Amino acid sequence: MSVTLSRWLPGLVLSAALPLMAHAATETAPAEGPAYGPELQGFQYPYTLKHFAFESQGQKLQMGYMDIAANGKANGRTVVLMHGKNFCAATWDSSIKALSDAGYRVIAPDQIGFCTSSKPEHYQYSFQQLATNTQQLLKALGIQKATLLGHSTGGMLATRYALLFPEQVDQLAMVNPIGLEDWKALGVPYRTVDQWYQRELKVTAKGIRDYERTTYYDGRWKPEFDRWVDMLAGLSKGPGKTQVAWNSALIYDMIFTQPVYYEFKDLKMPTLLLIGTSDTTAIGKDLAPPEVKARIGHYEVLGKEVAKLIPQSTLIEFPGMGHAPQMEEPEKFHQALLGWLGKTPSVP
Fold it and tell me: CB-side exposure of 70: number of CA atoms within 13 Å?
């Protein structure tokens, strides 16, 4: 049975959106930004970056991660942050601060294939593998149980982790997770890894910015988002650009072919869905025929539908926000998140 909080401060959301729309209409696109190394060398993370060395699939790999202690009185709980496909651990900066200030220890890793972590030439990507990698990191850090907070693709990963290691998950929270529908089953055409690779080689700062403005932020833009555009574009035009593009292609194939949608019903822990209702993200939407494109990526519907599938779910919606409410309106988002974390009992 799910609990739905259908509207979160709608008047404040609307009033906050108006000046942003005006800003978006008058701004000019920035110049192309810097180039970064294949493991994001040259990009500054908000907290000390560490690396976890381990072996996987016969290779020596490393995961970049941040481990942030509670700021002030610790509550003895840990939150593990799982970033999205077009995001990094660094993009959680405001969430890290909010959680740390509230007494949580925060672990924010970059998954293999992303950002500051290894990008192997050959790797069998699966959500099970990424979850296992993360579990190894937490074990090395002495963390036996944690709350998971996954955004976008990180929501799919957090779901898989919670299904693989339910006894190690206190609570599960997901921010606009993708995978709330099975795009392949709904008629989105398959794109091969080679096709994804060719697409990723053509990534530009302008393309990233235009896509994010439309899909992530419902046509609005804030100057602070430019840093994240530079981060992604800098990886894609740096000295490791082919390596970055190839791993990105493999990861897109994983996302498209490994749905978690059919297993939401099996989640056993308290689960929170935090949904920006104006999000329209759907993998492969650009290839879909018009009739398919028209019926996918409707988060104002998907959040409610999936909340009904998850046994112990709570749904909090952010009207008018897009794919990343934690970045678009961090104060409202964290007020909602921390309120739920504080009043929701963890799994014994």
Answer: 12
Backbone angles phi, psi at 129, to 5 degrees: -65, -45
d(CA 324, CA 275): 9
- Give CA 235 to chain center in angstroms: 18
Res 131 pLDDT > 60? yes
Output the pTM of the full model: 0.90
Q: 316-344, pLDDT tens digit by residue?
A: 999 999 999 999 999 999 999 999 999 97
Chain segment 75-124, per-residue pLDDT in tens: 999 999 999 999 999 999 999 999 999 999 999 999 999 999 999 999 99
CATH superfamily of 3-343: Alpha/Beta hydrolase fold, catalytic domain (3.40.50.1820)
- Choose among 194, 221, 191, 193: nearest CA to 206: 221
- The yes-or-no verdict on residue 18 having pLDDT over 70 is no
Residue 53: which H helix or E strand, with range? strand 50-56
Q: Where are the domains of the chain?
A: 3-343
Give the residue among 326, 6, 24, 343 at the shortest CA–CA distance from 177. 326
Stretch (H or E) spanning 235: helix 226-236
Q: Pairing mode, if any, of strands 59-68 and 105-109?
A: antiparallel
For the chain, the average pLDDT equals 91
Torsion-angle region of 138 (φ positive above 0: left; ψ -120 to 50: alpha; else: beta): alpha
3-state secondary structure of 257: helix
DSSP string covering 185-208, please?
Answer: TTTPPP--HHHHHHHHHT--HHHH
pLDDT at 8 over 80: no
CA–CA separation, 237 vs 10, rounded Å?
Answer: 40
Distance of CA 333 to CAs 198, 301, 317, 324, Å?
A: 36, 20, 10, 10
179 neighbors 195 (Cβ within 8 angstroms): no
